[in-house]
Amino acid sequence: MGEDMGDFESLSKFYNKDNKKSNNKKYKLLYHTLTKILLCIIIFITALITFKLKPNLKDKVYKVVYDNHFSFTYINNLYNKYFGNILPFDKVLPSEEEVFSEKLVYNEANLYKDGVALKVSNNYLVPILESGIVVFIGEKENYGNTVIVQQIDGIDTWYGNVNIGDIKIYDYIKKGNLLGEVQSDRLYLVFQKEGKYLDYKDYI
Predict the structure, then answer these.
(1) Tens digits of per-residue pLDDT, 137-162?
(2) Per-residue pLDDT tens digits for 1-12
(3) What CATH code is carried by the domain that includes residue 119?
(4) Within a domain: 43
(5) Cβ atoms within 10 A of the Cβ of 99, count?
(6) Which end of the chain is more exposed for a tag (fewer CB within 10 A), N or C?
């Protein structure tokens, strides 16, 4: 009987120790997650206050971000390397079926300026070639209304002659989703990395 009690006590200590380790891991994970969320909230509020007090700061930030080739991709990879994702959204949020998910379709491709002019159907709905962040929306000489996306692979893709819908500057947009509609039957694409123009044939 004494031996059985001894064995039971040993097993109890073992399980209690194991449970404590498991609980410690959970608390650490929760602590890191809450810390990251709090940090993001502080940064967001600080940015809002700063832009409110200094309206012209937005133009300066834009110049640093786009004209100086600020890399969202580099910062994102660096953050993920040392801190991981802020939250595992892909596991927390239910996946939703996209209403629009298409690949690029065109009838003809010709060299144009620093990129390519694609002949497409009138009012063609333009799909996003690769996920990334919108870093420019506006008029570009010879390209018309243009959207520039800094992709997750570090390449800046210009979409010219496009009317966009609800997309705004600094939105994160996903591959295959709808970017907008061409203004005629021409879509202009330019691929650029670190100030150098790339051969469009490698990307369409």
Answers:
(1) 999 999 999 999 999 999 999 999 99
(2) 545 555 555 555
(3) 2.70.70.10
(4) yes
(5) 7
(6) N
